[in-house]
Amino acid sequence: MKRLILLVLVLVALTALAAEQLSVQVRQTKLRGRPSYLGPATTEVTYGTRVTVLETRGPWRKLRTPDGAEGWLHESALT
Questions:
Q1: 7-44, pLDDT tens digit by residue?
Q2: Sequential DSSP letters for 9-30
Q3: Is 67 a residue whose pLDDT tops 70?
Q4: Which of 25, 43, 57, 61 fits as disulfide partner to 69, beta carbons 3.0 to 4.6 Å?
């Protein structure tokens, strides 16, 4: 049982380390509270900001900024 728990913890840690990093490629845009252009704006990001991908839903990416803010952005604004 202890080995199983250890294996799960190692897999979770490796997944976190392998998180995808992208850059914002538009002058400025808003992260959204849900994966839609109609979602409420949660924060603003600017060109060159490095973000971590937390989740993907179709062409939308849930992101975390370096200051810890989270929200959704369409993939067309990222590289």
A1: 666 665 555 556 899 999 999 999 999 999 999 999 99
A2: HHHHHHHHHT--EEEB-SSEEE
A3: yes
A4: 43
